[in-house]
Predict the 3D structure of the following.
Amino acid sequence: MATIFLLIKVFDKEEYADAFIQTGEMFCKTIGQFKRIEGDVARGDKFEALSDWHQPDRVSLTLSFKSPNGEEKSFPIGLAGPLAIQSNAHDHLNAFCMYAVSVPDFEGSYETEEERLHLVKKFNSMLKVSATLGDEMLALGEHAVLIYNVAEFIDRVIKAAKSEGYSSWKGLVEYFDPDIFHGSFEGVESVFRKRSVYSYQREFRFVFTSDRPDGEKTLHAGPLEGMALKLKTGEINGKLELKLAEG
């Protein structure tokens, strides 16, 4: 588990950032569309919504056939890499993705003031790392909206989705090492699992479904005044300071 302190949405056009601030406009592509994006590895992932990821040395495949004389033969197949299995069942789901400044649940104890200050310093160091956008995130767009009242924003989005008749899920994306992980993801859990090559995104997702025709959808969470601010993406690392006071 982790505590989310800020949510950041990066936009490539200022008008989109303004619409998000003014009306809570959330443009949501489908999982199927994210799968099919080509030439933009930051926004697209052909392995979205994996149901299974199996290491080649932990599965066995056999090729079987009958020869012309009716004799049954079989040969083992050696896999060159992991076996990935995807279902199209989640392709119709819509997703809205954000960068989460979060820290894993933190526990510590101290007996002296020096030990307390050490814990505070350790916590602030974790915050600084999480709040620093890498080059891949900075390249997504020049404009960003920072949500600083996370709980209220999430509640607003869930209520807006419900009012539209949408079912919804939310949560941090968990990342797995594709060279080590071997296993399966059940149901909608698969939409919140991605390969560690995308871990720089520190993604928080809203996922929606409805009875409406499949395709892109736009949800409006309402004006974000009092819970968000707009700034240049390139200013985040230099101007954003988030820390626990030591006093």
Remarks:
- The mean pLDDT is 90.
